[in-house]
Amino acid sequence: MILLLLLPTTRSSVKFLVSCSNQVSYFNSSNLIENSEMSSNFKSIPIIDVSPLLCNKWGDVENEGVSEVVKQLDQACKEAGFFYVKGHGISDSLIKEVRDMTRKFFDLPYDEKVKIKMSSETGFRGYQRIGENVTQGKADMHEAIDCYREVKAGMYGDLGKAVEGFNKWPDSPSNFYSVVSEYINLLTDLSRNILRGLALALGGCPGEFEGERAGDPFWVMRFIGYPGISDAKGLEMPENDIGCGAHTDYGLLTLVNQDDEIPALQVRNQAGEWIWAVPIPGTFVCNIGDMLKIWSNGLYESTLHRVINNSPKYRVSVAFFYEPNFDAVIEPLEFCKQKLGGIEKCERAIYGEHLVRKVLTNFVA
């Protein structure tokens, strides 16, 4: 069953006026939800058509379409921290091709897959076997290829040393690198536009996260395969058979391309209930990460989620993580603090330190 968000029945009079040069920037956010409390029991994940954000006309014009999307983004990020993205402009054929190539790679014999094996010497890029990824000290039942934006030696000094290196792309399928490169470029543009909408929702200008914050974004890509379970196991999956344990994401935005017919991703609401993020063809599942939570001063929450594949079918998922600049200092934005009476609710972080700390504890040695 597909669960939809009920949209407002009346149009807002909120005005939108920006300039891509940041010389003019105004968005009246007074009509948005001003409290920071997340819903205690959201039961569904909203679907948001982001196409008005993709027009690239961030000029001095009133744009009711953008205003409506901004309201929906704000509500979704405060209530669930997750939403489906439709109207994203990326072809269904490319989205499917990326999943199909991922499945073909995981169908290869282990001796072929391990040719691009992950290690600390590769900057934690490459293939990891089932059970090698760890969440909260427990092995996850998935295999994966991990890719990061490439980091040259000395590029970020000691801060980036652990993730220095270049991606290890599979030789088979032969077009893996070319297709994925196109895909990454498109997702980067999409993420940037969504982030502009979120900047407006928080009360800033659309370019709030450009420049030294996320103008030169780091990115992470994971190609993930989750084995199915036998009919005998049914829904009684032992704890160590969880595809990926409960966690939050590290950066700004995550865009998940998941198999169309295999529900497995679950999101936890504040009541402790796990809500299924059922596959909806033609959409990405989007969620916010730890760094956006800090910049928003906790107005937006990075929500716990996990993966449990109860299907007998092998499940493929491709997750793209859009991140701040690697060396960005992350601390609550002033206008987000003012919404909470000047109180700073989130501690300062440096994105690269946060990422490396997580990476170093995520893998079986």
Q: In angstroms, what is the radius of gyration? A: 20 Å
Neighbour order of strands in the largest sheet: 3-4-14-11-16-9-8-5
**Counted beta strands:** 18
Distance between the termini: 41 Å
Helix content, binned percent: 10-25%
State which percent range the strand residues make up.
15-25%
With helices defined by DSSP (H or I, 4 residues minimum), what is the helix count?
A: 7
Element-level helix/strand string: EEEHEHHEEEEHEEEEEEHEEEHEH
Shape: globular
pLDDT < 50 runs, ≥5 residues: 1-39, 231-239
Provide the residue-averaged pLDDT: 86
Note the main sheet. Answer: 8 strands, mixed
Structural class: alpha+beta
Q: How is the topology of this model organized?
A:
Elements lengths: L15 E3 L6 E3 L19 E3 L14 H16 L2 E5 L5 H15 L3 H4 L12 E3 L5 E2 L2 E2 L3 E6 L27 H27 L16 E8 L17 E4 L5 E6 L6 E4 L5 E3 L7 E5 L1 H6 L9 E3 L7 E8 L6 E2 L3 H5 L10 E2 H9 L6
